[in-house]
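User: quick one, fold this
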Amino acid sequence: MIMRHHPDSGKRAIALQLAFLRARYALLKQTYALHEIAIHVWEQEGGGASSRPTAPDSRNT
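Assistant:
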């Protein structure tokens, strides 16, 4: 049974979208935190500034 015009369907859609955006934001924060850790380890192991790893591209997420 499809409830297209149920009074709460819009609220549920917004809540689902908000949950999705929160999860995506948390994953992006984790990705950048891991990237910063990787840079720190790389620098501690003697990595040079000319070949420093680049940040992940957030445009593809």
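User: anything notable?
Assistant: Helices lie at 9-44.
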